[in-house]
Amino acid sequence: MPMSGTQPSLYQQLRGHLAALKLTAAAEHLPSVLAQAEAEQWSMTATLEHLLAREVEATEARKLAGRLRFASLPTPATLAGFDFDAAPGIDRKLLDELATCRYLESATNVLLIGPPGVGKTHLAVGLGRAAAEAGYRTYFTTAADLAARCHRAAIEGRWATTMRFFAGPTLLVIDELGYLPLPGEAASALFQVVSQRYLKTSIVLTTNRGVAGWGEVLGDTTVAAAMLDRLLHRSVVFNLDGESYRLRDHHAKNDALRQTATGTRRPLQ
Ligand code: ADP
Ligand code: MG
Questions:
Q1: Which of 79, 118, 120, 122 to mutate to test the pocket of ligand 1 (most atoms within 8 A of CB)?
Q2: In the predicted model, what is the mean pLDDT of residues 120-125?
Q3: In terms of Cα–Cα distance, which of 47, 28, 34 is closest to 7?
Q4: In this predicted model, what pLDDT tens digit does every residue of 133-156 receive, in sequence order?
């Protein structure tokens, strides 16, 4: 019996070591692992492996939670939750390839272009989540937030630090370019962020404006062209169009209501 003679104090010492090394999961699982080891007559190697595996699992889970917290994803959207039947323009194979996160190794950018409600943010969040889950440092922001942060940083003398911050993540998601105009300083900030990441780390960018409209958004066609050059050089572009998923849902509900109310359907368009 392991718990007889000098064993209890040895056991206490072992628990003490695990606690001192901050191996809390291993310490927590020590009694059950020892009991199972005895019941199933595990070798010492197998016993140690089981014990430390609990600690590794806990560490991985903690790191993942930290990465997800840092990523600041605005919704729980996932790639698995994306309905391809509702988005016929989307190349499923290509998206499956992106879901492997291999594109991050070649610093490839992803551009999601399309009108409101077609799933751009959903896919951007899904890609961000996949990256964080695969172990990549990921950060989600909107173009307007990025510009506002850089503006504050410039005023407070933290420009360099902020630029380093936006250079850091392996994946930077920039949502909603084009909803608000970003002229002057805002466009320069965005350009600098894109430039310093160019060929080093990936950007997933969503926009409601076709690339031809970027000059207007950034208030400067030269900056827009230079930025597009860098973004598109190594990139995957999705043009999403079709009916807004939000409105689709809305239409479907209206249809259902109308059907129950009158027994008729909305005519097919
Ligand atoms: P966008 O960013 O293009 O304006 P969103 O990604 O915010 O659109 O999509 C609007 C809503 O519809 C979100 O709740 C999103 O999860 C959902 N949605 C859009 N397209 C799809 C889709 N193909 N499958 C599942 N949900 C979708
Ligand atoms: Mg959006």
A1: 122
A2: 98
A3: 34
A4: 999 999 999 999 999 999 999 999
The H-assigned helical ranges of the chain are 7-20, 24-39, 44-71, 92-99, 120-133, 143-155, 159-167, 185-197, 214-218, 221-233, 245-262
Of the bound ligands, which one is closest to the alpha carbon of residue 113?
A: 1
Closest Cα to atom 26 of ligand 1: 82
Q: Is 83 in the pocket of ligand 1 (CB under 6 A)?
A: yes
Question: Residue type for 168, please?
Answer: G
| Nearest residue (CA) to ligand 1, atom 23 | 83
18: CB partners within 8 A, 6+ apart:
24, 26, 27, 30
Note the residue count of the chain. 269
Ligand 2 centroid to residue 73 C-alpha, Å: 12
Q: What tokens appear for 38 in the block?
A: 């005895």
Which fold does the domain 84-247 belong to in CATH?
Rossmann fold (3.40.50)
- Domain boundaries defined on the chain: 7-70, 84-247
